[in-house]
Specification:
mainly alpha, 59% helix, 199 residues, 3 strands, 3-stranded antiparallel beta sheet
């Protein structure tokens, strides 16, 4: 399929947000297993891919989560789910931000959502975003408690880690490049399990 001008514009916008980093074969394989190409999703959903690109460039739908090495814009399979729940693309921003009591926080989360960088979550919704924030904060506090390694504390800590693990994707090496360091899975799941093994 020939590259459209909108596809080029979207690729440029993606690189503005994420930087320019190589996608390895392993990155491509991970992304292909976890996400779907925008063209394929639009074909299944009866959507025009260029119109969806316009919505992304107009900050009304999130950018792709990844650009595969072949240029495919990789998006979550439920890309349109929140707009459907909100009653369409037009009311989506107001519907989304209303999930936060503080309007400034809601607007900040909306901007983060539009970046396409919530690739950490298996399903990106206001509820899962809020839950991830709660869990990472709780885990960070729990590991610094004086008796963090004791049996009761360990059970609570592992329950938090397990819940976060279930919410999150595995991430790939590309993510560590674009985010400039370890991911929340690295710090709040893998490192915590290594530091506090289950009894």
């Amino acid at each position: 399929m020939p590259e459209t001008d909108l596809k080029r514009q979207l690729a440029e916008r993606f690189r503005e947000v994420n930087g320019v980093h190589p996608m390895t074969d392993a990155d491509d394989a991970y992304v292909s297993a976890q996400f779907v190409a925008l063209e394929e999703l639009c074909a299944v959903r009866g959507r025009d891919a260029d119109e969806v690109r316009r919505l992304m460039l107009g900050q009304r739908l999130p950018l792709p989560g990844y650009l595969r090495s072949d240029g495919a814009e990789m998006v979550p399979a439920d890309l349109f789910a929140l707009a459907d729940e909100a009653g369409g693309v037009d009311p989506l921003a107001a519907w989304f931000t209303a999930h936060w009591a503080d309007p400034a926080t809601g607007r900040a989360e909306w901007r983060a959502y539009l970046s396409g960088q919530y690739v950490c979550l298996r399903s990106v919704t206001p509820a899962t975003i809020q839950r991830k924030e709660h869990l990472t904060t709780a885990i960070g506090a729990a590991v610094n408690e004086p008796d963090a390694g004791s049996a009761p504390r360990s059970d609570r800590l592992h329950a938090l880690v397990d819940e976060l693990d279930a919410l999150q994707t595995a991430f790939t090496a590309y993510d560590r490049l674009r985010f400039g360091g370890p991911t929340s899975r690295d710090t709040c799941v893998d490192a915590v399990r290594a530091r506090f093994p289950r009894p």
